[in-house]
Design a protein that fits this description.
6 helices; Rossmann fold; about 140 residues; alpha/beta; binds flavin mononucleotide
Length: about 140
């Protein structure tokens, strides 16, 4: 399987990357190919919601930044792995931008599997991050 890991951590050798490297080793040992892209160090802007990709030229994004390279890789991958440190109970802004920008290509047809690798600074945060939408969490504080 051709696996693409989108790592949203700005720390190139941080906790998230340690987990990503462990995942890569396991996946490669099992015969898969793994490509890691550190999206926090790429020039990727947020979605402009201009709808050009849906109304003018299908699947074409007007923003000619590093997302153009990622679109190609995402379309070629069989599996997508999203990796991120938890920032305020959710993904890093850099990874969020990448996910928002996939609006242009919609659901990549080749993808058979997805996975999420998240790194946090507190032991109980995973359950909360998965189970509760942000407004509910804020009301608990
Ligand atoms: C802006 C910011 C927000 C954070 N928010 C949370 C959080 O909501 N919950 C948590 O458990 N850790 C939080 N952390 C801690 C990171 O998720 C944690 O240190 C993570 O392991 C860092 O991964 P990295 O080494 O790849 O940067 C936050 C860190 C930063 C910088």
């Amino acid at each position: 399987m051709k696996i693409l890991v989108l790592n949203g951590s700005p720390r190139l050798n941080g906790n998230t990357m340690h987990m990503v490297k462990a995942f890569k080793k396991g996946a490669e040992d099992a015969g898969h190919s793994v490509d890691i892209e550190s999206v926090a160090h790429m020039n990727i802007h947020g979605c402009l919601a201009c709808e050009y990709c849906r109304t003018k030229e299908k699947a074409v994004c007007v923003q000619k930044d590093d997302m153009q390279k990622l679109y190609q890789k995402i379309l070629e991958a069989d599996m997508l792995v999203f990796a991120s440190p938890i920032y305020y109970f959710t993904l890093s802004a850099q990874l969020q931008s990448v996910i928002h920008r996939t609006y242009a290509i919609d659901v990549p047809k080749n993808i058979q599997k997805t996975a999420l690798i998240m790194s946090s600074g507190s032991a109980f945060v995973y359950g909360l991050a998965i189970a509760l939408p942000l407004p509910s969490i804020i009301s608990l504080l």
